[in-house]
Write a structure and sequence with these properties.
Elements: E1 2-7, E2 10-13, E3 18-26, E4 30-39, E5 46-51, E6 57-59, E7 67-72, E8 77-82, E9 91-100, E10 106-110, E11 114-119
Parallel strand pairs: 2-11
Antiparallel strand pairs: 1-3, 3-8, 4-5, 4-9, 5-6, 7-8, 9-10, 9-11
C-alpha cells in the first residue's frame, strides 16, 4: 500500500549539517503521521522527530533546537534538517509513516534506512 524512498545521509564532520528526505507513494488508503527514527549499533531504535497529519512537529530531547522536521502537505514527503551534528547522532535513520486503510486499519511502514555518520 505504501512505498518509501529515502535520500540524504552520509558522512559529515561534527558541527556540520545533513538533510534527509523521504517520499511516500500510496496506492490506497491515506498517510497520517510521518517521522524519523534512528538506530545506533547495539541500541534500540528511537524516535528522532515526527510530524502529524496536520503539520504539528514533535522532537526527541536529543533533537530539539538542532533538527527541524518538515512536511509537504498533500505530497506525502517529509524531510529532516539536521544541524550541529554530533558524533552521538551517528546511526541508521529510518523514515516512518502511519497509514490508514479506508476502513481505518492502521499500519506503520518503514523505509530501508540511510546511514548518517558524524566524525569527531
Amino acid at each position: 500500500q505504501v512505498q518509501l524512498v529515502e535520500s540524504g545521509g552520509g558522512l559529515v564532520q561534527a558541527g556540520g549539517s545533513l538533510r534527509l528526505s523521504c517520499a511516500a507513494s500510496v496506492s490506497s488508503g491515506r498517510i497520517d503521521g510521518m517521522g524519523w527514527y534512528r538506530q545506533a549499533p547495539g541500541k534500540q531504535r528511537e524516535l528522532v522527530a515526527a510530524i502529524t497529519g496536520g503539520g504539528w512537529p514533535h522532537y526527541a530531547d536529543s533533537a530539539k533546537e538542532r533538527f527541524i522536521i518538515s512536511r509537504e502537505l498533500g505530497q506525502n514527503t517529509v524531510s529532516l534538517q539536521m544541524n550541529s551534528l554530533k558524533p552521538e547522532d551517528t546511526a541508521v535513520y529510518y523514515c516512518n509513516v502511519v497509514w490508514f486503510s479506508r476502513t481505518w486499519s492502521r499500519r506503520d511502514f518503514w523505509g530501508q534506512g540511510t546511514q548518517v555518520t558524524v566524525s569527531s
